[in-house]
Amino acid sequence: MPKRKDLKSILLIGSGPIIIGQACEFDYAGSQSLRSMREEGIETILINSNPATIMTDPSMADHVYLLPLTTKSLRKILAEHPQIDAVLPTMGGQTALNLCIEAQEKGIWEDHNVDLIGVDIDAINITEDREKFRELMGKIGVGMAPQATATSFLKGKEIAQEFGFPLCIRSSFTLGGAGAAIVHKEEDYDELLQLGLEVSPIHEVMIDKALLGWKEYELELLRDKNDNVVIICTIENMDPMGIHTGDSITVAPAMTLSDRTYQKMRDMAIHMMRSIGEFEGGCNVQFAVSPDEREDIIAIEINPRVSRSSALASKATGYPIAKIATKLALGYTLDELSNQITGSTSALFEPTLDYVIVKIPRWNFDKFEGSDRTLGLQMKAVGEVMGIGRSFQEALHKATQSLEIKRNGLGADGKGYTDYNQVIDKLTNASWDRVFALYDAIAMGISLSRIHEITRIDMWYLRQFEELHELELEIGKFDISSLSRKLLLEAKQKGFADRQIAHMLGCLESEVYTKREEMNINRVYKLVDTCAAEFKAETPYYYSTFEADMETPDGKRAAQNESIVSDKKKVIVLGSGPNRIGQGIEFDYCCVHGVYAAQECGYEAIMINCNPETVSTDFDTADKLYFEPVFWEHIYDIIRHEKPEGVIVQLGGQTALKLAEKLDRYGIKIMGTSFEALDLAEDRGRFSTLLQDINIPYPEFDTATSPDEAMKVADKLDFPILVRPSYVLGGQGMKIVINKQELEEHVVDILRKIPNNVLLLDHYLDGAIEAEADAICDGENVYIIGIMEHIEPCGIHSGDSNATLPPFNLGDLVMQQIKDHTKKIALALKTVGLINIQFAIKDDIVYIIEANPRASRTVPFIAKAYGEPYVNYATKVMLGHNKVTDFDFNPQLKGYAIKQPVFSFNKFPNVDKRLGPEMKSTGESILFVDSLKDDEFYELYARRRMYLSK
Fold this sequence. Notes:
This protein is of the alpha+beta class. The protein is built from 31 helices and 35 strands. The model has no long low-confidence stretch (mean pLDDT 92).
């Protein structure tokens, strides 16, 4: 049966700003969904308040509404577009589902004759209301842990008395495990029960007997209206039950599940999916399995929508779940759709993987001083990375190399824990660096049975870690000249980086690289083809691995490389790696636009990134995608393989920028602004000297590399002093100090965390106004794309400030200084591409705080506010394809656009919520106001000093 003929105009609800628990995986799903609908000739209308995403780009939908996700906004859109036939709420996470339910309860869909597609409201209610879900599972014979529902504090106390401890508390209708907790001791129960009830919008919690030590699995399913069901991916959590799946290290396909139990789990998942209601689309089912030979299975939950895991499953298998789920919602059946990877078979197939996927979450606890870092049922990660390898060990190493936490992989870098008690504590209380602690425990000689007893992690995984450590010890017996080819090849096949092998051998990384070259141990690239090579794959989506040579009939020996290099001119775009505070989805937006612009200029655009949640790693965004760590060794091998004209580093945030020095040193062309200029702007001392030379004011400053030097600088500068390390992201380590004691404490702390750093000490301009400008420069001409004024005073990180575009109370004299300074600095830095400059304004004098000659957090915001494709223009300038004067700039904005930061403090209740120079927000939304008399602007302005820390 083909698609429904009555669906011509569809409203898609997005997920709003990025928060912990709901991140850019929904931007990816929504973007895929919009493209999927437009392929069918359907008019698309989008509501989403997030300006940083590619999803809200004007090119993505026919009508984009950057409005708050409220029923008031829905009524406005439906009044303006009476032609809307249906709403698709399953692509925007819990936020979209909750808004959809609220609109249903208020009769909005009925009033406007709008159909609900892709999901059934009853299905949402059954799966979210834990009491109804438990009843249904009992009816269909699917086992669950002993559970009971409480809608009052008293009832909760009674249940605990009946079940005994440990217990799990889970709040109904929440996201990212909000309000959930495991309670081991009676004395902690009252507080956690109260919190769970408060967090639930319906004041309800499910209390169940904690299945600690049971293994956890997820299945990603798709179902069409004819009740065809396919299992796209099975994901195994390396961590046992008790840690939220978003905070777990996960592996696909499942590694320790017997086929008998998998078939049983499969049948249960399909049975559960069919029982919750009539709907077409994606579904995520979670199970717990007993860690004994009986392998009893019980259901945990089911989500009738795309999820964080479906983004991961899409990248793991190459099967575009959101895209196909959208087609199913339009009325297609799976057998009518083509498999997007092979291009020849149907979508009614279950992917088979001949590789292993490992996902590791990325946390940002350093931003939340004093936070509880123990992992549990409430998600705390801000992003994630994915590694693809031919073995679990290779994929694990690639994932750890992708995290960007100054580790080179597991072990062999001199940074492991060596204190027995500390390691035992990290294993006992699941920590963010648990994957490293496991390796360190083995290195310390703690037995696998003891580690298993503490962590309940399956012995199969622990043996994999043990094998890696044994290999490290074996290699350590040799030096670079005596290491055999067999041992070096084995180390590379198990994912060890050249840097780690150099550490084991006591030599330089470059020596290991040279040795590999001599021995012909080179990376080969394999297609992510979903069919284990049973059918020919058409998709240019690759991962690297190391293979033993095969001999061809003509006697030549070589490893098979599936990445065929074309003779087109190429450019590589470096991605921004995992999401984190200070570097989020806005850089993915920039990378995607960079890829599109390069294609428009006639280049073959090649993307390198390791973030499974984003649009840049979609299999059909770039001409070629290498799903690899943004880690020097991997990038250099790809560059040597592809031989591009150059590499774009300006669009991937600090991640890509940090690699500019190596690229420059190895003679690889950086497209746009040179490394010399990038480095000059990052080196705060040299940059201030440049400002002096071009006669631009900046706060009095000096540099220091030790506490003693900092004390001498303090004698010259007046307090308060702003202390800033060089080469950091999101204001890491920045702090305003008001006396020598605070100064010394902070400098010691920074240099402990970031050794050998050059610190910049500025006199802090107390009470100054902060503003920033973004511009495009071609080395000769400068065009300022936007100037924003921060509502909060100077001293709060720009990412945490409410910013207005255009400024609301800067006089002509100040505005002229901002424009003049921006142009002077852009030209002095020989900028080719984008630049962001931040200013402090005091007594009508404009001082420079810093300049970043790269894409900034605010570029997507300005592009959305003015309706202009600035990243597209800037990329064409970087490539030398255009001059700034070639573009016809025509910004359109009625009134003001305000960038509003969003925080996830609710995940860290004990944390100091005051704001300062170090960024803490996880996302942002955009608010349009017609005038400064608007109540919402007035309220923001009145609260501008509320959270200022010092």
